[in-house]
Amino acid sequence: MAKLNVNGAVRDFEAEQDTPLLWVLREQLGLTGTKYGCGIAACGACTVHINGVPTRSCVRPVSTVGAAEKIVTIEGLSPDGSHPVQKAWAQLDVPQCGYCQCGMIMTAVALLRDKPNPSDADINEAMTNICRCGTYNRIRAAIKVVARGGNTKSAALAIQHADGSTT
Ligand code: FES
Ligand code: FES
Asked: Pocket residues for ligand 2 (CB within 6 Å)?
């Protein structure tokens, strides 16, 4: 049995050396929030944090992740979706199909930790994940809402919601 430190707990798993971390997380540990999109490190759907670094787990052999390295998946951000980035995503109705969004959120969390008030250029540089639904504008807006302490009014973003209300 090999071990991984995931979301604050030591977990056992068995896998071939070259098995991507993504498949251990999803299939052995049941952490299915992390998604498979491309398998070639291009889309970011599989992004998790390893020691705080956003990492595309589809191309990371599990054997290269040390037992002491701290992995955080979307399930480990908060017990109830109350992380400020998750809350901003919900406030602004960011997801459409949702498939890419866990990876987007994990990437945004790392960006906002390192740059609490990111510029558009900072966001462009960090948010290289792909969304086939085209939610990029709302992702940018949600990141700015987090940077403004979660206050959508002060952000003056003029986001129109499905119920006709605006933020
Ligand atoms: S599935 Fe890993 S980057 Fe696309
Ligand atoms: S919300 Fe559908 S792929 Fe991004």
From this structure: 95-101, 131-133, 135
Please tell me whether residues 59 and 113 are part of one structural domain: no
Residue 28 lies in a domain: yes
Closest residue by Cα to atom 4, ligand 2, is 131
Please report whether residue 68 resides in a domain: yes
Domain around 135: 84-155
What kind and span of H or E run contains 55?
strand 53-56
Do residues 70 and 100 both lie within one domain? no
Kindly report the pTM of this predicted structure.
Answer: 0.94
Where b means 16+ CB within 10 Å and e means fewer, 152-161 reads: beebebebee
Q: Which atom of ligand 1 is nearest to the CA of 35?
A: 1
Residues 118-139: tens digit of each pLDDT: 999 999 999 999 999 999 999 9
